[in-house]
Amino acid sequence: MKPKSQVNHLLRTLIFLSVLALFASACGGSTSSSTTSDDADSTTTDTVDDSATGDDAMEDEDAMDDAETEAEDTSDASDGDRTEVRWFVGLGTGSQDEQIDRQDAVVDAFNSSQDSIELVVEYIDNTTAKDVLATQIAAGNAPDIIGPVGLEGSNAFAGQYADLEPLIAAAEFDLSPFAGSEESYRTAEGALEGVPFATFPSGIFFNKDLFDEAGLPYPPAEYNADGTSLYGEGTEYEGDWTYDKLAEIAAILSVDAAGNDATSAAYDKANVVQFGFAHQWTSNPASLGTSFGAGRIEQADGSAQVPAEWVESYKWYQNLVHEVNAAPNSAQTASDLLAGNAFNSGNVAMASTHLWYTCCIADVGDAWDIGALPTHNGTLVSKLHGDTFRIHKDSENQQDAFTVLEYFFGDGALDLLDVYGGMPARPDIRDTYFAALDEQFPQGVNWDIIIEGLEYADSPNHQTGMPNFLEADARVKELEGPLLEDPDFDIDAAIAALEADLNALWAS
Amino acid sequence: MASVTAALRAKEPKRTFAELDVDAKRFLAKSTVTLFATMLVVGFLLPLVFMVVTSLKTEQQIASQTILPKSTTTVDVTEGEFAGEAYDLYAVPFDDGAIRSLALVTKGREASTFIDPAEPTVPIEWEGRWRTLEPALVFDPTLENFPEAWDALDFLLVLRNTGIIAGLGMAGTVMASTLVAYGLSRFRMPAKKFILSSLLATIILPGFVTLVPTYAVWLKVGWVGTWWPLIVPHFFGNAYNVFLLRQFFLGIPRDLDEAAAIDGASPLRTLITVILPQAKGAVLAVSLFHFFFSWNDFLGPLIYLAGERSKQPISVALYDFLGLYDTAIPLVQAGAMLSMAVPILVFLFLQKIFLGGIDLSGSLK
Amino acid sequence: MTIVFTGPDDREADGSTHRPLDGHGTLEKRERRWGLMFVTPWLLGLVLLFVIPLVLSLLMSFTNYELVDTDNQEVTWVGLDNWRRIFSDPDVANGLWVTMKFALMYLPISTLLPLGVAYLLTSERLWGRSLFRVLFYLPSMVPLVAAMIIWRFYLNSESGWFARLLRWVGFDPPNFLGDPAWVLPALILIGTWGIGNGIIIFIAALNGVPKELYEAARIDGANKWHLFRDVTWPMISPITFYNIIVTLVGLGQYFLVPFILNGAEGRPEGASKFYTMVFFQETFSFFQAGYGAALAWAMFIVVFALTVLLFWSAKFWVHYEFEER
């Protein structure tokens, strides 16, 4: 080796080491920022007042150093010898305003139930939660507990979660009520990263008033043994409850300002005042596609291929939105008529969505019920969401964090499930759960049909991960916009481009 | 306007435009230009009107898609088979040409049932489409969105946070920028050109380049999650402010500070006793600019105060608020209105400073 | 680089260097010491907040550093990989194209519109000039997020007032923020709310043109267009130049408006995915901070080069009354 290149090599190594040192300290540093938000808040305010009298930046920095120690002191003092466990809410449901107070109550209940752990909760708005969590993790400031989080939020942070199995063993936590469903949280490497907490099967939410006004029979209230169902038995509308049937009914339920429905030649597409159907917050490509048939884009050989049923479902919905105009496009969904929450406006007759939608349905009053999902090619797919709580791998208090989880799965379970609108993953507490829901929605909602949907859950689940998840997922989701916005969107071409892009991404 | 032209016409009824005297011509020209400017400004500010009007609506009024906040008149029915509920009133035309104000009790596609509020026990079958009927609308604005947005934003807390961040930063930037500007306007020093260029370079530099490393530095100091990363940098001065203050200082005659120097005052003393009193306007302008910068600053607080809800300033709080309530359109408009109240008021009171034509180029004064 | 800061007043400042030195070297030294002391905060800040992060960012661009490690990969030195990737990344090409299209549309508007309004607002034929100035400046005071809340709903193609207005005059409104062909024009429209400062500066510039020049030109028989071309335009060209620089610098950092309205993925179909958003998505959505650093640095280099180019071009079209050196 020539001397010159050795010098170069040395230089390179030095620079690299200094960068690494910085990153390492970046990731490992920041031990002082984990005071409870209230404590930190008040102490910082105090220091701000102090330092406001300071003359220049240097004095401020001194004041700041004081602030740091002060903050630590106070947090120690107020927490006593309790271990602090930080809980991050926002990747999934949970950070809506009306949910916050009720979760606070659960936190208070937990904190007063024992005296060794201080549970501290952070609510982050869903739109920024992913970036915030990323920043916290990058800062070496990761929370201990993350959740509720679905598969999708989990995929985005793959490799960041702790294996719960040692904790489960140490705490002698009984997994038997979960009847093996926890296996769906096992990673390819064999780690058990979650225990099922809430499940959200899906169904067709429908507005009874709008069906009555049109003189139409309601969607079927039960499934046959094979998952099919019959619509409008004994009426002129009788037929198998398929997506085609649903489209036919949806057209009748779509009305313009003059009272013409979408089957009429006079139907004015520019002046629709009521829509027949909407994929309520479930129109992302994987979810929409899975309504016609479960599948995956990643094939066994590692190549990308969008399942044929998915493509059919896109074309079906595109037709319904842009040709028939029986479902709202994105501008219509955002308009004053539907205000971003289509079914809740009372101007949409049917919505395909999950049980969590009970969160946001107040404006429809008691006019809604749940009916059967239609079939495609004779198969029924009831898309399933599952939420859980996870523990970050870098948490220094994993044992204590798991103690909190035990509370969430035990005494706190029903309260939290109620907050999230999620059905208990443990079958043994479901009855209690639905009894509480019946008090909230006294019209007598057909919960049975949504529970029955569990037997037809999508497998593989539509939120299953894929390689290069973040980039691949972002690329797949690019389909949704034009599907809902562009009447001339060429689905076949877009799918071909998507497959090519994914193949390129996965090959690299 | 009409009465004015009428008056003109009464005065000189028979003259054509060409014959109009100079005053009248100028008057017409002024009217035309002013009318044009008015139309332009109305178009320009229409989104603000939209915000105000929308913030006065209820969510039901939003869905009914009227431009102004209007509600349908409802009738409470207390007897008969439809008792116990409120029904909307419509103007219903009948074959005999009569139009009656009736309450719609059962909706149907081609025929519906109405009742006369005076005779609620007698259902009236009406052939036709109820959607084509005129609903009985009344102007009915609501103020309820404002207290709700106030609470949801936790407005006072957010205001306090913004005030502290803006206030301290303001103190820092005024102090540092004044010193630097004074140094650059009055003293010979090595590498002055370089310093001036470096100021300019920081203006050109996209903030993203330094975003991640700066974050790492603050993290190392342990200040992520506190207000300090949003405050401390301003104690090093800001290029725009330095240029602005320097321009003002250059305009202050040197004789004054030379006189002070002869009296034995140190340069710092000269700055405080001679220069600053003359540059009050510029200092106030710099303070205000920083206030508005702080009020608007979004990416900084978003990143450094992530998760610290109780420390967030108005910009990030409003963004979170939008995320949480974007299905409640009137509420978010009310929130937007709250958030701009302070800046707009400050502006209206101190408009001279903003409209005085402050520029950094120095090419005109 | 300093040319824009060289005006009549600056001459006085430079004049200080021409002051006859009194021969006292100590006095000169003392002055230097005081001067350096006063600029110390800036020099400190320059090193701490700009130079160090810039160098770190450059170093980072040669690594595969991830903001959040999702694949258990060690941070390693990857040489020029990130920089090479910039040239083959279709997102970057799209981002540049979007940014360029936007800049080409926005630069003339951000110059001509404030100039036009300033012309109107300095017209002697306008009643209530000061009121109009307040009203035209008002939107500049609206906080950015609040403005986005307003525009997002105002531009809805179904129920927004802008669409209603267009329908009222007989146009079929497009889906402004959802149609790839319309999203940039919509962003330009939103951008018109930021012309307040430009208007004020142009008003000051127009008022600063000496009246005698107009009189003289008028005596020579110049018409209105000639007046503008031969008198007004050269006289306000330094301000126009300044305004263009400010706009260009702003364009290089243009991010928040499309980000808040259409997300980091630049809906619809990437039509509002500016170069800055490619950076943001790579760094904060995909956690590829090393590649992000390369993207940010590349952006810096380009904006810097453009600014230098513009300063160079100023020689040919910016008229400095007090040309010197």
Could you tell me the CATH topology label of chain C. Answer: MetI-like fold
Biggest interface and residues each: B-C, 100 and 108 residues
- What share of residues of chain B is helical? 55-70%
Estimate nothing, just give the exact number of structural domains of chain B.
3
- The parts of chain B where pLDDT drops under 50 for at least 5 residues are 1-5, 359-365
Pick out the low-confidence regions of chain C. 1-23
Task: Give the rounded overall mean pLDDT of chain C.
Answer: 83
The coarse overall form of chain C would be globular
Model description:
The complex is a heterotrimer of chains A (508), B (365) and C (325). In chain A, strand 6 (230-231) and strand 7 form a beta hairpin. Chain A folds into two domains: 80-199 and 387-425, D-Maltodextrin-Binding Protein, domain 2; 202-383 and 451-507, Periplasmic binding protein-like II (D-Maltodextrin-Binding Protein, domain 2, 3-Layer(aba) Sandwich), CATH 3.40.190. Chain A has 508 residues and is α+β, with helices and mostly antiparallel strands. In chain A, the strands form three sheets. Chain A has a six-stranded mixed sheet with strand order 2-1-3-12-4-13. Helix content of chain A is 44%, strand content 12%. Chain A is built from 19 helices and 13 strands. Chain B has 365 residues and is of the alpha+beta class. Chain B folds into three domains: 2-55, no CATH class; 70-139, no CATH class; 146-355, MetI-like fold, CATH 1.10.3720. Helices cover 59% and strands 12% of the residues of chain B. Chain B has 16 helices and eight strands. In chain B, the strands form two sheets. In chain B, strands 2, 3, 4, 5, 6 and 7 form a six-stranded antiparallel sheet that branches. A two-stranded antiparallel ribbon of chain B has the order 1-8. Chain C has 325 residues and is mostly helical. At the A-B interface, helix 1, helix 2, helix 3, helix 5 and helix 8 of A face helix 3, helix 5, helix 7 and helix 14 of B.
